[in-house]
Amino acid sequence: MPANATILGGIAGTELTAAERDFFRAADPWGFILFGRNVDNPDQLRRLTGDLRDAVGRDAVVTVDQEGGRVQRLRGPHWTEWPAPLDQAAAGPRAMWLRYALIGRELRAVGIDSNCAPTLDVAQANTHPFLRNRCFGTDPDTVAMLGRAAADGMLAAGVLPVMKHMPGHGRAVADSHHDLPTVAAPPADLEAMDFVPFRALNDLPMGMTAHIRFTALDDAPATASRRMIGLIRDRIGFDGLLMTDDITMNALSGTQAERAAASIAAGCDLVLHCNGTIADMEPVVAAAGAMTPDVQRRAAAALAQRGAPQDMDFAALMAEWRSLTGAIA
After folding, report:
1. In a designed cystine with 309, which of 3, 71, 158, 281 is the match (CB 3.0 to 4.6 A)?
2. 171: DSSP letter
């Protein structure tokens, strides 16, 4: 049964309230996103993910940001504390596959079947600190190689990867949570660097946009730019399910409903809304509208890649990961 609303929504706390259940039953969002505020312990999280799916009456996607380092919503003592990706990128693709297969196993065990990773932005000397060590490297081929390993590890664990931030956030010197970054690089430079990892992984099921203005291409931020979404589809070649970055971030202007409408009009498939309040989500759901046949097709193709987890010996894989990365801290 397809979803109705082109939104991934969140909730306020560690349990689904009656009001939230009623809202989601009526709105029928495609999926959900969780944050640290929603996480207490494994048993609680399994109940919550089950309750979210019960609210919409189907096996909806539940995603999270579990990159490692600062961006990790499930933390110790119940879950592994992972280093930032860039800090251990030198350990190579096998270590990165292991890392994200293990992350995926931990997520799937509590009912989370998607992860907003890998981050395929190419780190540079002036990349804003909020992003830099979340990247996999400073050259596009390395980022693509390690990003592929990370994505394959998650898929092996039955977890859908979401590559981000399309078409590239590495040149940004501002934090898009607070301001709209502006990148003035010419298209040829973007083609040679920023777009390369996304083009190499354009077969992945899901992607996320960047709230960045590329002044050589358009005045609007990529999330709300028909030209930039067209570039993601045509020049990068991504035909997967494309969600916005969180529309509550201050990089975008206008009301949240206006941001949602602009994103959908630009060609995004889904609106990501992360603050978890019903009052804010209601106008966003109305503005985003229902899934079109093209969005339903891409959503079905993404779900088709959500396979059963492969059998894994967690202890053995963890021991191998620690062996490969032990000298790189």
Report:
1. 158
2. T
